[in-house]
Amino acid sequence: MSVVADVNVRTSDVLTVRGLTVTVRDKTLVSDVDLSVGPGERVGLIGESGSGKSLTALSVLGLLPEDVTASGSVRLTGVDHELIGADERRMSRVRGRRLAMVFQEPMTALNPTMRIGDQIAEAMLIHGTRPGRGAARAAAVELLERVQLPPDTLRAYPHQLSGGQRQRVVLALALANDPALLICDEPTTALDVTVQALVLDLIVKGVVARAAALLFITHDLAVVATVCERVLVMYGGRVVESGPVGEVFTRPRHRYTEGLLAASDLETTQRRLTTIPGNVPPAGQFPSGCVFRTRCRHATEVCATTPPWTGSETTGFACHHPAEAVDD
Amino acid sequence: MIIRLIERTAVLLVSLVVSSVLVFAFMAVLPGDPARVALGVNASDEAVAELRRQFGLGRPLPTQYFDWLGGLLRGDFGTSYVSKAEIGPQVFDRFQVTLWLVLAGMVIALVVAAPAGTVMAARHRKVSGLALSAISQLGVAVPAFLAGILLIMLFAVKLGWLPANGWTPPAQDPGMFVRQLILPALSLGLVQGAVLTRYVRSAVLDVLREDYLRTARAKGLRPFPALWRHGIRNAAVPVVTVLGLQLATLLIGAVVVERVFVIPGLGSLLLDGVSNRDLLLVQDVVMVLVVAVLVVNFLVDLLYVALDPRLRVGSR
User: Which segments constitute the ABC transporter domain (chain A) (predicted)?
Assistant: First the structure.
């Protein structure tokens, strides 16, 4: 999408991503992604696996795997330098302090040989946000309490906790320094359904209490609907549609979003769910022009050219043959 | 944890008993009469019979076994059939020498392998990592005795910095002890270090791929501090295993290196025992080496427990 077409660029945004492109060797995995998250705003990033959601998050954090490179611009409020290409010394001051992340797999996210308390306290001691070890430990108890874990969790080792408990610990240490932005990458995908609701609730409460912004990555539309206010739909390494959750989910414009919603329509009266024909192409092998055209029923010749972005940055889509807009 | 301790202790005791039976049985099934072997083919039948009577070699094998084992437990290693000298004090003296040599070799191996392996892993795609890899590959290929000879040629013969051979007990002259220890310890340690480096490298590489290391980075730790605080302890577990196994190799290596550097250790005692056909001496020395390896591996098991809380603290 193009920045020029965007008439209302918001200046107070917490996170501003412009033209983010991620490549590995000669393959492009994420193309030209623009994305903004306002203060205290909860934004969802949805798409199938391989759509580039996680890579987008890791680029923001500067923790891409060694052979993967990002270009473009990522700016974070309160940080006076560009995050893309910033050296380790500068990035390490941003990570865990201004910007924190909760990863998908809670079972392996914590160091098995270190007590929970030490792992949480460390997050604060690295950035000097608490005066000393004692204060950091006291703060850790409070953080654990806020994610509804008892104080004696401090002395526990990760293997003594369940997946849901571990994910709450990861959340506690991510929020330890009151970051301006919390990124969650499929934080509940690996958890039991019963535990999911609790963890989602704690994530929302945690960011709301701190007035922190949230970038929430998932493939689960229901989760986005509960957690987020605004949503970006990614496919083939591009943002294909964005807008307020209610609007995108009830009146999708991009044909991919439409298919995605039909495929996950829980209120369907039909016995079989509608699926999107074909498969997601392997990474880096998406068609030119519209990335969705090989699976789209509405595709025509014009789809071989990259569809322009229609609408504003926060609400819009990139499709040559959009679903019809419904007037209220 | 206590269950594990009991279990490991039981394993150690059983291994000790089984290995003592094996060592004894192995010596017992050797062809020829031990007395005849000790005295040589030219000895008279009377002399052989006298020796057999003197050492009770005519008794049933189980009696001889329990007699030998009971002696070992009391610290009595028996009397040599050949020199008629007490074996115990010799083994004890020589064991101390070999212990110094092996310990020094182990320390050198660790001091070389820990940083080299870590750098190789952290820079496995960079030139410096590949260069270290090539050097360690070379080190793995060099046998300890050859390393010893090369070291003597360079540091003793050519440069004259260190003595080429000999041994001085530390109590007698600490300075000389250290000077004489350096080259043999290096020839043992560098080769073992090269092998160990490969294991450290793969252990650290595994840890670098772990999610918790990414969590540590996401907290704001830079790559090296993250590896140091969160990786080393986790990487230590497989490395310690190898270290325990390497001790056996080090003891074998010591046998050869003691020959090269003319050091009166357990290895040269063993070789002397073999060439003098002193069967009981050989049997005792082999048993001492077996016990050393078993005990070290027992200690390694305990070290796991110290390193990994998953083995120590049960689920709640």
Answer: 9-261
Give CA–CA dist A202/B308, Å, rounded: 31
In chain B, count H helices and then E strands.
14, 0
Mean local confidence (pLDDT), A122-150: 94
Q: Which residues contact B228 (CB under 8 A, 6 or more apart)?
A: none
Considering only CB atoms, A92 lies closest to which of B210, B221, B234, namely B221
Q: Residue A104: closest CA among chain B residues belongs to which residue? A: B211
Residues of B with CB under 8 A from a CB of A: 125, 210-212, 214-223, 229-230, 233-234, 307-310, 313-316
A127 lies in a domain? no
Please state which of the ranges A205-209, B48-52, B105-109, B140-144 shows the lowest mean pLDDT: B140-144
Instruction: Check residue B130 and give its pLDDT.
Output: 78
- The pLDDT, as a whole number, for residue B278 is 85
> B39 or A186: whose pLDDT is higher?
A186
Does some domain include residue B103?
yes
Asked whether the predicted pLDDT for residue B312 surpasses 90, the reply is no
Q: Which one of B220, B309, B310 has the shortest CB-CB distance to A126? A: B220
Q: Residue A199 and residue A188: Cα distance in Å, rounded?
A: 7
Averaged pLDDT score across all residues of chain B: 86
CB pairs below 8 Å between A and B: how many?
A: 81
pLDDT tens-digit profile of A60-118? 999 998 889 999 999 999 898 999 989 999 999 999 999 999 998 999 999 999 999 99
Find the closest chain B residue to A124 by CA distance: B219
Cβ within 8 Å, pair B211-A66 = no
Q: Tell me, what's the ipTM?
A: 0.87
Residue B39 is part of which domain span? 9-74
| Cβ A194 vs Cβ A163: under 8 Å | no
Distance CA A271, CA A252 (A): 23
Last residue of a domain, one of B20, B53, B74: B74
A100 to chain B nearest CA, in Å? 7
Same domain, B96 and B177: yes
A105/B211 Cβ within 8 A = yes
Question: Exposed (0-12), middle (13-18) or buried (19+): which is B216, by Cβ within 10 Å?
Answer: buried
